[in-house]
Please model this.
Amino acid sequence: MNVLYQSTRSSMEAIPASKAILQGLSNDGGLFVPTVLPKLEKDIKDLSQMDYRECAYEVMKLLLTDFTEEELKTCINNAYDDKFDTKEIAPLKKQGNAYYLELFHGPTLAFKDMALSILPHLLITSARKNNIKEEIVILTATSGDTGKAALEGFADVDGTKIIVFYPKNGVSAIQEKQMVTQKGKNTYVVGITGNFDQAQTGVKNIFNNKELAARLKDKGYIFSSANSINIGRLVPQIVYYVYSYAQLYKSGQIKKDEKINVVVPTGNFGNILAAYYAKEMGLPIDKLICASNENKVLFDFFNTGIYDKNREFILTNSPSMDILISSNLERLIFKLTGDDYKKTAEFMNDLSQSGQYQITNEMKEKMEAFAAGYASEEDTGKVIKKIYEDTGYVIDTHTAVAVSVYEGYLRETKDNKKTVIASTASPYKFPVSVMEAIDPKYKNMDDFALVKKLSNISGVEVPKAVAQLETSEVLHDRICKPEDMETLVEGLLI
Model:
């Protein structure tokens, strides 16, 4: 089956995967979605005997159909190598009554590595396939993790430059240090005096500026994206849900075709959308449990059918989820409309104009696969402490949001299906919040002192990515206002 990609906002002609990956965002401002979601071909017995790379090929070949077997396997093998600190790439660990899918064993200690390790290879392969001569400029906004993972993936990749914008006071100290110490002659990191939504909106505005694109193309540059709006980010994320199910089957935890639930700490909606796509492709997932922090715009949406970003933006101790405009939700909206690009465009225009939209009752009924909950800062801290005291296992703040929501879901529904919790970041990325939750005596201690304490209590060696940060030189110190992002980008390139 040849899978093509269409826009969520217009009737433009569908294009192959490689062109969608190159563009990142459709010319009409919409997101690319597959015209059809193919069903998984391999039996779970076969998948259970595969390692992560083999599983990745079996999933991704179904969606990236204009890549040859050699091209795709080369991308996969280059991505999932010894830059990950475990052979399993994404190990599954049982703690209490749930299974934690550890997605943080890559070079930047967060789940974004799972897709951003392969995106540069997919992008460069796509450029070759489409005879692109211009240098590709990766432009991305980050709420904490995407930025470093993208920088790590694209650093010194020939034919590319990467510019990352992050909210100057909206990420953890470790997250910021990871970004501003990034090496690579083609890397640029800019703090903005605003929040993530402003950074993301600024990036979208740059993508949609046709005059700027024309000027830069004349100078030998074209834009692409490493954000989860790029389908080249989304497709690799489907893999780890399939892999985790196969591992549960392999270890005898579930029977063939037994349904499981999945809990995902959610901000921009890409990670849980990948689980939804896996379900649509035939993976036996029952409930997709969307976990929000105090920026609970998604919780409210799933409960009311109204998406409303007109609210206070709250800085929490799970900063990668501090988002009020969940870009990837547009892909679900498109699906709920019955692939109606006109309706989808109307909803997105309403969001742009008034900051909200309301879906129909018919669309709301199609969301029965989703459940939603949210956790307060207090809830998050209590969960970290409880899990550590009960099991000795230490989780980060984002994973704790998921656990808190899952526990609430269990109390309310008594649904005791086997459950996979997406553990999206290492506790080493958020040592202040994690250690303070475990014991208030750690309050006000230095981040790097807390890293050593965390290693002592968890029995987990400090990852190299964090250990070397303390003495790393700051290489990026640019700061700009959100309204100046476009001018800054043009200045960097011309």
User: Anything to note?
Assistant: The chain has 22 helices and 15 strands. The longest strand covers residues 160-167.
